[in-house]
Protein 1
Amino acid sequence: MSNQEKKILVIGGGISGMSAALDASETGYSVILIEKRPSLGGRVSRFHQYFPKLCPPMCGLEINYKRIRPNKNLQVLTSTEALKISGEAPDLKVTLKTSPTYVNHKCTACGDCVDVCPSERPDAFNFGMNKTRAIYLPQQMAYPNRFVIDRKHCPEGCDKCVVACNYQAIDLNMPAKEQEIDVSSVILATGWKPYDAKKLTHLGFSKFPNVINNIMMERLASLSGPTQGVVVRPSDKKPPKSVAFIQCAGSRDENHLPYCSSICCLASLKQISYVRAQNPEAEIYLFYIDIRTPGKYEDFAARIQEDPKLKLIKGKVAKITETADGSLVMEAEDILKGNKVHIEVDMAVLATGMEPSIAGQSFVGDTIKLDSSGFIQEDQKAGIFSAGVAKMPLDVSSSVIDASGAALKAIQNLRSD
Ligand SMILES: Cc1cc2nc3c(=O)[nH]c(=O)nc-3n(C[C@H](O)[C@H](O)[C@H](O)COP(=O)(O)OP(=O)(O)OC[C@H]3O[C@@H](n4cnc5c(N)ncnc54)[C@H](O)[C@@H]3O)c2cc1C
């Protein structure tokens, strides 16, 4: 096999996986990029804006999609995950499973199928804050731009979408597919999931509707979100006049996530700007232990903190309770003033941290070494590398830099044998 014939597999189609796959394939190597969801983009495709520039992530994602489309060295498999990795580099074998989406490549995303679909499902992309039809586009700027069907929600015997489709793009009997591929290097870019705020019982998430997490806030602020970008409190759909941001919700806590996710303070400061842009009069509170905005982000943090209606309270929220009208009372100790505070707000946003999503996935087994928090360790067996938040909490620009490093290591591994 020539070096160029040896393949690199990238697992995870978020910003880190896409970057690693593009960097390696654009240097002439053959790369397969798999993503378990029906479209690429990972977590950032849910964001309204990026700190510090407050620009939409879709611009950066679209630039990547533009690089992917003509790239003959890069094969993208969505709805596909790795089940098993075996063998030794440079002869690694990976078993892949592609789940059926029931819609094939002929789909033009015209939407005729949606118009006739009789049933609905909670929209997981928007954290269940709205519903889609059983046939749906995974997200507004989906890549590939193709509908998928959630068969669990199809009425028995219904084939209205098949009849409505003019392109023969729907196959309700599409099977799952398993295949074993030979690769020489694997890059793990499996990213993160939000820490499950239900475990923070004292903060009332999923008990009080107006307690949301920071990803729900991104979706509320996004033009493609459940409220077309209007930040409202979930209970009555009214714009909140007061909002509390609760830092370290579960983070830096031995009972939950012992580490700092390093971006949550920046994410909340960014989200304060979303609220402020929509309501110049809103009272905003930020409860924090320390505000961590290192290096290049200091100016951004200082700019947001100039807001005269933003009140910073150094202290952990001990408890959230609900009033009769759905408002919320934050109970905390104000460490700097040395007193207890009870502050009533319309809505609270929990700054939950990033938890690595690789733990528990079937291919990990004894093959992949994880640290005590579930992040991928640096020293793996030959041929296996990692990129982005799968390895440690990182912002987007650091994830992209890290991904380029992983691509280079994967290439070196191909050339060294
Ligand atoms: C509330 C919040 C706001 C943030 N805002 C910003 C911001 O404004 N600016 C900024 O710089 N950073 C921000 N971040 C950080 C940013 O989200 C991360 O840096 C970024 O998501 C890292 O991308 P990733 O590709 O490593 O992981 P992910 O985005 O999680 O992508 C991983 C991908 O891998 C897929 N995957 C997982 N397992 C498998 C498998 N077995 N097979 C196939 N696919 C798999 C997943 O489906 C996913 O698509 C924010 C974080 C939070 C929590």
Protein 2
Amino acid sequence: MTPQDRHALLLAHTSLRRPDIVPEVELHLVDDIVALWKVTGEDDPPPFWAVAWLGGQALARYVLDHPEQVRGRRVLDLGSGSGLVAIAATLAGAAHVLAADIDPFCSTAIEVNARANGVDVEVTLEDLLEREPPAVDVVLAGDVWYEQSMAERATAWLVRSPASVLLGDPGRTYLPRDGWVELAAYDVPTTRDLEGVESKRVRVFSPAPR
Ligand SMILES: C[S@@+](CC[C@H](N)C(=O)[O-])C[C@H]1O[C@@H](n2cnc3c(N)ncnc32)[C@H](O)[C@@H]1O
């Protein structure tokens, strides 16, 4: 699929919406991710880029409410999906934001969504977990502990990162239970189709001092 095909598909199957707890940001989102996955191809990854995941919403809310965490700093949004957290960091005054995701569809979504919000976000499709953490001041990671191998790689990599780290997570299976300090918690509305409940308590953490 070409970038033009991805762009056309995104526009045809999503609508601009404001995530429940992050009304400052507009994103191209979908109601039924399973139906969209049939369109994008079930041999490909799910269209993570078409949903504002719970962990990302909590982290974006936190960054917007605590702009001093990113203001004037170089920020990496790891596992950016739609670009929600990257866009929030830009709106909060980050000097430069790099959004990293390995799915080419996310690159399309992040660029389209950044434009919709009038902000600039650099995008990389490189798997940054394969190399040393880049020279950034802050790493943000929203909802990346849903799959074992990604979670283990991300955790080991974040522990090595000299940057400040903030993560948002709704209690996914593979987030290590220990080693974090809770900074904030939000009740985030969701749907039974997506998460099996109507609302989830979602937490923002930083690594515990070592
Ligand atoms: C559940 S989504 C979360 C997206 C977004 N942060 C949010 O909260 O809405 C997880 C994202 O991690 C991405 N991902 C998986 N492995 C990755 C890797 N090694 N490096 C960067 N992103 C990765 C997936 O493609 C997906 O977009």
Protein 3
Amino acid sequence: MRYYIITGASRGIGAGIVRALLQPGNMIFALARNENPDLLKAAQAAGSELSFHRVDLSESAAIEPLLSELFGRMDLQRAEGVYLVNNAGVLSPIGPLETHSLEEDEFHLRVNLLAPMRLTAGFIGRSQKFQGRKVVANISSGAAQRAYFGWSSYCSGKAAVEMFTRVAGLEQQQADWPVVVYAIAPGIVDTEMQDKIRRTDDTQFRDKPKFIRYHEKGYLASPEDAGRALAKTLDDPEIRTGDVLDIRDY
Ligand SMILES: NC(=O)c1ccc[n+]([C@@H]2O[C@H](COP(=O)([O-])OP(=O)(O)OC[C@H]3O[C@@H](n4cnc5c(N)ncnc54)[C@H](OP(=O)(O)O)[C@@H]3O)[C@@H](O)[C@H]2O)c1
């Protein structure tokens, strides 16, 4: 059995990753605030085990008990592999830094940074003795490396995700049975997040016309294609722990 914990699995890229993993022998734990009934039906048809676990990842204290519950449902003695994909993410608050409230920035960083950090920490701790394949994929963004007007929270959160990935990777190089921890930017994908970008007030986000052009020219990947490409990287033997990658380089 291969076990997968996928966050932000209710729609968009996360749902695309889950769809790509629906096959017998895979047990998938899908985390989000909402369920996706279509995915549950598709899992049944594919003979794959999929369960939704409702969680608001801004509630940091909920993460440890949830991880304990999920690892309690795994039989690591007989497992081939265990995987975590930190995909859940938000874009707001959008607008110049001084317009953000403390609560907005706190919410953002709890979801986009603290949740992936704590999930990765809990995953590494709980799988230390497991000698099969262990992978943590952190979904990053081009915004981790490029400053965008109005996206101070988003750019900083993603940049920090890439840095904690590099540090965790460095640490895992010393482990007896290392976890492959890597970050990967998914390209531009046709999801609710992109829709939100195109509806943002231009004065809050100056690059909006560029994103409208990408959409008009058909540059956006579908969540299904992006999910397939990202799912493929989970077993890529070329990826080393600590790597920071972009799916467009594949
Ligand atoms: N789309 C792109 O072009 C693009 C480009 C670069 C990077 N990314 C990154 O790719 C990832 C997925 O983005 P997407 O475009 O698929 O976004 P999306 O369509 O908005 O989906 C976001 C997912 O995250 C979940 N989520 C949001 N807040 C949550 C919370 N508080 N607790 C638990 N789950 C939460 C949502 O589920 P619920 O609402 O059900 O909780 C949903 O499943 C994000 O990390 C994003 O930054 C996307």
